[in-house]
Design brief:
Layout: E1 2-5, E2 8-15, E3 18-25, H1 30-45, H2 49-53, H3 65-76, H4 81-88, E4 99-101, H5 102-112, H6 118-122, H7 135-172
Parallel strand pairs: 1-4
Antiparallel strand pairs: 1-2, 2-3
Helix pairs in contact: 1-3
């Protein structure tokens, strides 16, 4: 599948539980991008499956960086003879590549899911939330405001009574 975003395309392929993805300029041939992803998949098939199954984090694939780099070098220039032959070969059997624009994907999500916040669907950046707008702070305020008011009133009354009794003692002397 290809996802277009402005002047770039995300091309991805999922094979055997591994997600192969590439980010290309929109002018880069999709067919060549998918040949690149298929070559990556073929190289990963050569490795022991137990080694690949042990990988739990994305950065664990750094071990395969040299292999990925070698394949990438072959596909950087679209004008090489090998790449041109891949583009012209099997013209009748075009790859069935689904292409969607990001706005189409968001529209599908908008129709199918009510769980995505509206700000993500509309593409508006999130408003900076302050500490005063947090729901947790509202709960704390509702719980402690009456107690705080009672304590403040009690302290003011004690202070006032202390001042009055002190003034009464001073005036009686």
């Amino acid at each position: 599948m290809t996802i277009r975003l402005d002047h770039h395309c995300f091309n991805y392929l999922v094979e055997n539980g591994i997600f192969f993805i590439t980010l290309c300029d929109s002018s880069y041939p999709r067919k060549l991008a998918f040949h690149y992803l298929q070559d990556l998949h073929q190289e990963f098939e050569k490795f022991d499956n137990s080694l690949i199954e042990k990988i739990t984090r994305p950065y664990s694939f750094v071990k395969f960086d040299s292999i990925i780099g070698n394949i990438r070098k072959r596909y950087i220039d679209t004008r090489t003879q090998a790449n041109l032959s891949k583009l012209s070969a099997n013209r009748k059997q075009e790859l069935d590549i689904v292409t969607k624009h990001v706005s189409e994907i968001l529209e599908c999500c908008r129709q199918n899911s009510d769980q995505i916040p509206e700000r993500i669907l509309t593409g508006t950046p999130p408003t900076p939330s302050s500490i005063w707008g947090s729901p947790r702070l509202q709960v704390i305020a509702l719980k402690w405001t009456p107690i705080t008011i009672i304590v403040v009133v009690a302290v003011v009354l004690l202070w006032a009574s202390f001042i009055l009794t002190e003034n009464f003692i001073i005036s009686s002397l």
